[in-house]
Design brief:
Helices cover 40% and strands 9% of the residues. It is mainly alpha-helical. The chain has 2 domains: 84 residues, no CATH class; 147 residues, no CATH class. The strands form 2 sheets. A 3-stranded parallel beta sheet has the order 1-2-3, covered by helices on one side. A two-stranded antiparallel sheet has the order 4-5. α2 links the parallel β2 and β3. It is elongated, with a radius of gyration of 22 Å. 18% of the residues are buried.
Length: 248
């Protein structure tokens, strides 16, 4: 299901094994691959899924573990009615940093981050190629750091948010999205409202827009979701930024 063979070839291999043994036979892989390959339903005796949110780029915290696993199991069960669904691998890390390889940033509480509430916890896709490159460079440099160390040391201190806002303001001025000589100079927080307007103009579904901006129901699905959900957020962000930058 990962591209090494077609689903029909995998099904044939499973049936070949079943013909030679007297025990139930299954195939185990990441849970999200199963609904995409439902033709395996008749080949396996039961479905075995791996639920590894950290490697799926959605680092779910321990308190959401049970709800997350149950939601995924129900989703797979709906795709394979009548089949027994077993979890082959599952686990949550106790701590970790942003996954730069996945080009996402996890917004969560820590000793220096201030979020309004738990509804603000979310995973945000990074859509600019240069920004993705810089994140990966930074991740390589930080590979030997402690998970609690700030990813961006320049801003990773109490009050560093103001420094980050100042740096962002200079960038917005540079690309023409902020006029420091205007009667009412826009703050960096204004970019949040501009982004929201762009999402609306791009006809992005309200649920996806809310997930990007931290206006959700606060449930695990809204914060993390599946890889398909992350891709939907990524496409929405790309459309919104295209609109914003076209006005610069």
């Amino acid at each position: 299901m990962r591209g090494e063979m077609t689903a029909s070839e995998l099904a044939a291999a499973i049936r070949s094994v079943k013909a030679q043994v007297a025990v139930p036979v299954t195939y185990a892989d990441a849970w999200e691959l199963w609904p995409r390959n439902r033709e395996l339903n008749d080949a396996v005796d039961f479905v075995t899924v791996h639920i590894l949110p950290f490697w799926e780029n959605f680092p779910v915290r321990a308190e959401f573990a049970a709800a997350h696993a149950d939601a995924i199991r129900q989703q797979v069960a709906a795709a394979f009615p009548g089949k027994q669904i077993l979890i082959g691998e599952i686990g949550w890390p106790s701590e970790g940093r942003m996954n730069a390889d996945a080009a996402t940033i996890s917004l969560d509480f820590n000793s220096i981050r201030r979020l309004k509430n738990k509804k603000s916890i979310r995973v945000i896709p990074v859509v600019d190629d240069l920004a993705i490159h810089q994140l990966r460079v930074r991740a390589a440099r930080a590979s030997n750091c402690k998970p609690t160390d700030p990813f961006f040391p320049r801003y990773g201190w109490d009050g560093g948010g103001n420094t980050a806002s100042a740096a962002l303001g200079k960038w917005l001025t540079k690309i023409g999205l902020r006029d420091p000589k205007a009667d009412e100079v826009k703050t960096t927080h204004s970019l949040r409202h501009t982004f929201k307007d762009a999402l609306r103009e791009a006809n992005i579904h309200r649920d996806i827009a809310n997930m990007l901006q931290g206006h959700t129901a606060g449930d695990a699905a809204s914060r993390y979701g599946s890889s398909e959900l992350l891709e939907a957020k990524r496409q929405a962000a790309e459309k919104a930024w295209a609109l914003i930058l076209s006005t610069a």
